[in-house]
Design brief:
The radius of gyration is 23 Å and the shape is globular. The protein is mainly α. The N terminus is likely disordered. A hairpin with a 2-residue loop joins strand 1 and strand 2. The chain is built from 19 helices and four strands.
């Protein structure tokens, strides 16, 4: 129910204008005066991020671990061989081509779905109708990709290709309209930072639960095979993720709180306008490089722990747990630093620290310090970039959306976030292609060359991202009138 609005006797012209605008809103003529969402509404929205973060964790981070596992002794992997393990032309891992192909499809569909949601006029909500339709198949296929259907590696390879492509289609149908709501719910700059912080918390919680797969697998292996234990863990994750993804579908009043306009601009035209924005170009290309590096640590944590540090795979869960809990402690300081220094300087600092984390990972074999020291040092050092990159980029895109609307009168929230997702997923695509190909150089304790090269490559990606983001120019963010 909308709050009653009546201008009292003797009120100013501004009061009467507000009353007239409210009358038009109730009559359905405009959506210019949405209510500013309270904290409870922001939390309801953010819980959807926890759901899709957990649901997407396996496909995003553990496909290589499951289908191209670390060698634990005498060339044997943790799991049986389900798909073809070879390389194309001797340099590109076939599994890398499959996963990067799925990610490329995911990235290409982002701007198309973004334009579709920007032009949508459904009575069920401009964005929410997509969330409702995508949630269940998104969760279902997050499990099916880890269920090989045959003992024949060729058949399983084609099944994996099919399930990955369908999974990424429904993931995009959920995440693109979902992220567009950041700027539409965040009418004021402070709301956008709070929404970005809440989303970072819920994303990290989902990611943290996903990382417990290593430990859950280990516990279940007393009763199940390694494969069945792994599959059961992700079936549970999919169910939990689905429930959280449905929270904003049922409890978020999009029409009351979201500041939205329907656009009739075509997909290619709006995409051109988005990448015509100078600030967005420099941000998005640096963001692509960050996601390559981040995906390296997500794909490689089990390799870094077992091969470079010589620890059990269950320590991968502890590593990510330490990093994420430490990053939570930095959320308030990150917000304070943003108010004092601005988003640009804080994000540049995060690039530097992230490159140092990978540099130390690369050199761990030659530095004369205990491996346990490196384990905790790297986990704690990673907290600052995880916190900064978890909070600031969504707020930057929301600022750019409002700057663009103020200058052009066009609201392209879906396309801006779709384009950001496109660049992010292109980074993940490249990482999924490069990382397993580097592992061909060696992924065992006797020959860790490929694992070390992955850490060195991540350093270079972070430094390149730093150089690009230096050209971003921060401007005062606009707030909705």
């Amino acid at each position: 129910m909308r709050p009653d609005y009546r201008a009292p006797a003797g009120s100013s012209a501004e009061d009467w204008a507000g009353a007239f605008a409210f009358f038009l809103l109730v009559c359905g003529k405009t959506n210019a005066l949405p209510a500013r969402p309270p904290l409870a509404v922001k939390i309801i929205y953010a819980l959807g991020q926890r759901g899709w973060s957990l649901t997407s964790f396996g496909a995003a981070n553990l496909l290589i671990y499951f289908y191209f596992p670390p060698e634990v002794g005498e060339g044997a992997g943790i799991f049986p061989t389900y798909v073809y393990q070879g390389a194309l032309f001797g340099i590109i891992a076939v599994l890398g081509l499959i996963t990067s192909g799925g990610r490329l499809f995911d990235a290409v569909t982002d701007p198309l779905i973004a334009s579709w949601t920007d032009r949508n006029q459904s009575r069920l909500g401009k964005r929410r109708i997509f969330l409702a339709g995508a949630a269940f198949p998104f969760a279902l296929f997050s499990v099916l990709i880890f269920y090989p259907i045959s003992t024949d590696t060729s058949t399983n390879t084609w099944w994996l290709i099919f399930t990955i492509f369908v999974f990424f289609l429904f993931m995009t149908l959920y995440t693109v309209p979902y992220t567009a709501l950041i700027s539409e719910l965040g009418h004021h700059e402070s709301d956008r930072m709070l929404l970005s912080t809440l989303l970072s918390v819920t994303w990290a919680l989902g990611f943290l639960i996903g990382n417990s797969a290593y430990a859950i697998q280990g516990m279940l292996e007393s009763s199940y095979s390694a494969t069945a234990a792994f599959q059961l863990a992700f079936a549970d994750f999919a169910l939990i993720g689905l429930l959280f993804m449905l929270v904003p579908v049922f409890f978020l009043d999009e029409r009351r709180y979201a500041r939205q306009k329907v656009t009739e601009i075509s997909a290619f035209s709006s995409l051109g306008k988005v990448f015509g924005n100078r600030n967005f170009r420099f941000f998005s290309f640096s963001d692509l490089l960050y996601w390559i590096a981040l995906t390296f640590i997500q794909l490689g944590v089990s390799f870094y722990i077992t091969i470079l540090l010589g620890m059990d795979k269950s320590f991968a869960t502890l590593f990510m747990t330490i990093g994420f809990f430490a990053s939570f402690l930095l959320y308030a300081p990150i917000n304070w630093l943003v108010r004092r220094w601005g988003k640009r300087r804080v994000l540049l600092s995060a690039f530097v620290v992230f490159s140092a984390v990978f540099g130390l990972t690369y050199g761990v074999a030659w530095l004369p310090l205990p491996k346990l020291f490196f384990f905790y040092a790297l986990a704690l050092l990673s907290a600052f970039p995880l916190a900064a990159f978890g909070i600031i980029p969504n707020a930057i895109v929301a600022d750019i959306v409002y700057q663009h609307e103020r200058q052009s009168g066009e609201q392209l929230a879906g396309m801006f976030y779709g384009a950001r997702n496109f660049m992010m997923k292109m980074g993940i695509t490249l990482a999924n292609l490069i990382f397993p190909s580097l592992l061909l150089w060696g992924k065992s304790a006797d020959n860790p060359t490929g694992v070390q090269l992955s850490a060195l490559a991540a350093v270079l990606f972070c430094l390149a991202g730093y150089a690009l983001f230096r050209s971003y120019r921060e401007t005062p963010a606009a707030s909705a009138a």
